[in-house]
Amino acid sequence: MDARSLIWNIPDEETLRRNLRRERLTRLAWILLGVLLFCLLISCILGVPQSFLGEWWVKPPRYPGATLVDYRKGEVCQMPAQATYCYEWFYRTQDPVDQVKAYFEGLDRGFRPPIQFEWKRGQRFGPNWVAEGCRAVISTISCFQIIVRPVNGETEVYILESGRMGW
After folding, report:
1. How far apart are CA 97 and CA 85, in angstroms?
2. pLDDT tens digit string along 111-159?
């Protein structure tokens, strides 16, 4: 350090670089936050046809070891103008129905409510073991339905994911 730096309290070059880097990162973080908030605002105002956050939040996990048999898009949901997505997944497993139900009911889903099965009629099929739930996120309602039923000595796991705009 020279005498001028000591008298005027001028920091050295490394400190100046560090401060400049910190300021740039802070500015970038604020810009990214602003862009994110702007996108959320536009999505709410314009009614963007899908809430990816809601879809992710509600989406139930797949049963481990189950084989995907079929996948359908938008078939069972009566897709009104405000509907955003409707996915159906059909899985098969050798495990008994009670074991599959116990897996889903025993899941730790964090802040999401636990999955509970009850005997009733689901979106497809007749009366079966059905678990369902919905969650409103921003301007979209995202829902799931899981049906567990015995089919030809195996267990079929049917998962319906759907969402629509509005409250």
Report:
1. 28
2. 777 888 999 887 788 888 999 888 876 667 888 899 999 888 899 999 9
Alpha carbon distance 103, 19 (integer Å): 52
State percent of the chain over pLDDT 70. Answer: 78
Backbone angles phi, psi at 111, to 5 degrees: -80, -5
Instruction: For 11-30, write each residue's pLDDT tens digit.
Output: 788 888 898 899 999 999 99
Give the global pTM: 0.65
Q: Is the dihedral of CA 94, 96, 99, 105 positive or negative?
A: positive
Q: What secondary structure does DSSP assign to the chain, as a single string?
A: --HHHHHHT---HHHHHHHHHHHHHHHHHHHHHHHHHHHHHHHHHHT-S--HHHHHHHPPPPPTTPEEEEEEESSSS---TTEEEEEEEEEEESS-HHHHHHHHHT---TTSPPP--EEEE-SSSSEEEEEEEEEEETTEEEEEEEEEEEETTEEEEEEEEEEEE--
